[in-house]
Amino acid sequence: MSARELEKEHKMKILHIMAGADVGGAETFFVDAVQALAETDCEQRVITRANNDHKINVIKGLNIPLREASFSRITPFTTKRIIKKEIADFKPDIVHHWMGRAGSFSVPGDHVNLGWYGGYYKPERFKHCPYHAAVTQDIVDHIVKNGVSKENAFLLHIYAEFEKGSPIDRAEFDTPDDAPLLLSLSRLHVKKGLDVLQKAMLQVHDAYLWIAGSGPLEDELKAQMKELGLEDRVRYLGWRNDREALLATCDVCVFPSRYEPFGAVVIEAWATQKPLVTAKAAGPKAYVKNEENGLIVEIDDVDGLANAINRAIADKELQKKMTDNGLKAYNENFTREVFKKNVMALYQELLSR
Questions:
Q1: SS3 29
Q2: Segment holding 279, helix H or strand E
Q3: What is the mean pLDDT of the chain?
Q4: For residues 244 and 246, what is the distance between their CA atoms, to the nearest angstrom?
Q5: Is the pLDDT of residue 51 over 90?
Q6: Superfamily of domain 170-333, CATH level 4
Q7: For position 7, what pLDDT does the model report?
Q8: 253 with 274: CB under 8 angstroms?
Q9: For residues 22 and 238, what is the distance between their CA atoms, to the nearest angstrom?
Q10: Please, which pLDDT band fits residue 26 given cuts at 50, 70 and 90?
Q11: What is the mean pLDDT of residues 137-161?
């Protein structure tokens, strides 16, 4: 049966399987993807961990049936039993496994199994997935190099879409209205380069820095902040779900990651027309063109990062050039409508096979 004939007969059924951490970029995009697909003519169900109230509430708010599972490696049979029962009841056309942990719980059947990569996972983690989709072309190439045929590996960009956010009252975080405000949306992890950013702040005079995120490095980073004497200009906001408001409030978005397969912050800055300063991790390096749609510096380069931030603050002509070009790149590749078109085309391609 062709994909077109299948569409006429019944709505396409998609079962999403997502393990994932409590918070993170891929976890955030999973929720975004489910929301976007809710606007298409397909039927969805979700199996996920109950480790994030925001995720659970958004999905339930869309009236999408949701089942919770532990995805424990110690007792995998419980989760597999839940997945098999949901497949038997729902009879999905596509089972979409988000990231490697979910992929390791894939089960064979009459459905099509698709694995999604937000990073450089090993294809063998997607045990029963003949098809693989990745967030960047570089990860697609990685999948192929690791034994997946080129015909079965696909590029599927994520998207960022924001309603115009209302700025936060800066006084809420003891920040002057007239001071340049830098924003870093990031997990507090060694991969994210926030220690380098704090060192760079010593050369970025008068600016304030908001760091929105949580993670294992929180105590160490706050200790470094105190050692550097930055308590008066650096604010830790914790994990936030109001990214639109934070981006509406800041003057420059800074993304100094050492390791970043893609980096949703790049397209979030573009979408909200905020000047972007980033380091040359794999994802940003593939999409950011220096002095065109952002400023990009070497990884772990404190002086280079500080210089780029100062330029992004002071050079108004450069700001406009970068934000105009960033918005153009966003509109061409990373909007909600582009994602819906691409993901539905991918699903239909897989079913036609």
A1: helix
A2: strand 276-279
A3: 94
A4: 6
A5: no
A6: Glycogen Phosphorylase B; (3.40.50.2000)
A7: 47
A8: yes
A9: 13
A10: confident
A11: 94
**CB of 116 closer than 8 Å to CB of 14:** no
Residue 181 CA to residue 289 CA, distance in Å, equals: 23
Cβ neighbours for 198, distance < 8 A, ≥ 6 positions apart: 209, 221, 224, 225, 228, 230, 234
Residues 6 or more apart whose CB falls under 8 angstroms from that of 310 comprise 203, 204
**Does the fold of domain 170-333 match that of domain 3-159+335-352?**
yes
User: How far apart are the C-alpha atoms of 311 and 333, rounded to whole Å?
Assistant: 27
Q: pLDDT (tens digit, 9 = 90+) per residue, 314-340?
A: 999 999 999 999 999 999 999 999 999
What DSSP line would sit under 30-95, residue for residue? Answer: HHHHHHHHTTSSEEEEEEE-S--HHHHHHHHHTT--EEE----SSSHHHHHHHHHHHHHHH--SEE
- The CA R_g of the chain, rounded to the nearest whole Å, is 21
The residue that leads in pLDDT, 50 or 229, is 229
User: Please, what's the largest Cα pairwise distance for the chain?
Assistant: 67
Give which of 291, 300, 284, 293 is closest to 324, Cα–Cα: 293
> In the CATH scheme, what architecture does the domain 3-159+335-352 have?
3-Layer(aba) Sandwich (3.40)
Q: Which two tokens stand for residue 313?
A: 């603050």
Enumerate residues 6+ apart whose C-beta is below 8 A from 132. 114, 115, 116, 117, 123, 126, 143, 148, 152, 153, 154
pTM over 0.85: no
Q: Which of 48-62, 77-91, 184-198, 272-286 has the lowest mean pLDDT?
A: 48-62
**pLDDT exceeds 80 at position 3:** no
State the residue for tokens 């340049």. 180
Q: Which two tokens stand for residue 52?
A: 């994030």
Q: What are the residue boundaries of the structural domains of the chain, listed by start?
A: 3-159+335-352, 170-333
